[in-house]
């Protein structure tokens, strides 16, 4: 936003207020000069962090973003904290099918979220989060052959990025080489699945491959967002439904598989300049991701020294980002975005004022349900089949 033009003499007279006072506390920021003022701030403000703490004093000195989402803070506050659930495994006969899109309206969203499938999928996310509570990424954990196989697959995809360099083009975002990379992923996805699927579950590839290929962004738009990230979680959920991933694997699924996936997606974002898909811009949590903030806040619950406000300590970010996903996300954002953190990431800045990580984690889970899983623009692209059912009619 362009700064306001210099004031003319006739503008100066009405622009009077106290910039410093020992008796009256300041409650806002002057939109003309940027100084403290005793006038109350505008009623429209960025989405506040629900159910956690009073909002901090910071408010961006600029007009609200045009794409500011509707404020449903109260609805999020009233929402119960999602609880973990055990994933029911399928039994024969199997009815695998090609998944399809089924959500087109808020009413469809409501019907889906009233279903046991929706609650169980979110419960699976919560269970993954709980599996790494208080644990570092490098902590030893049970690593099954399947988990090792999946990690190897993601490492393969990362090597393909090196083999398919970006081309020179006039457009800054959306390098077309990404389409070549994504096409190779799509062509090889089924063979990847067959590496770890037992014989009786190999027909499931028609259902789980679309979730896998949609996990890495959209090749037409050359973009990536929380909907694609949710597809990766859905792919893992399908593996859990088939018993390929078991509860004892959950810690490794997050600290080995998901961490590798996150590394790959950051590489794709940097190398091919992927556009954020449906981002809320500066008012959003992050341009691309949500789940690492859930998992990362769980890692830090009851940490002796690091608090939510520790994200502002550069030494902590430098020394502990490799062990804690939340810190890794903050560090990555600070590297790729210019300007003060409070301006380009105001919601994350607000969250840093929360007193403890447990409240951050519960708030993140509630927000993920409300801002990702209950949003038509995101869920209209989500796929449903036999493993993840959606009965709309």
From TrEMBL:
Catalytic activity field: [protein]-peptidylproline (omega=180) = [protein]-peptidylproline (omega=0)
Top-level taxon in the UniProt lineage: Eukaryota
GO CC, alphabetical: cytoplasm; nucleus; protein phosphatase type 2A complex
Gene Ontology MF annotations: peptidyl-prolyl cis-trans isomerase activity; protein tyrosine phosphatase activator activity
Composition bias, Low complexity: 19-38
Pfam family, one: PTPA
Comp. bias regions, Polar residues: 40-51
Gene3D superfamilies assigned to the protein according to its UniProt record, in alphabetical order: 1.20.120.1150
E.C. number: 5.2.1.8
Region entry Disordered, spans: 1-60
Similarity field: Belongs to the PTPA-type PPIase family.
Protein name in UniProt: Serine/threonine-protein phosphatase 2A activator
Organism: Gossypium australe
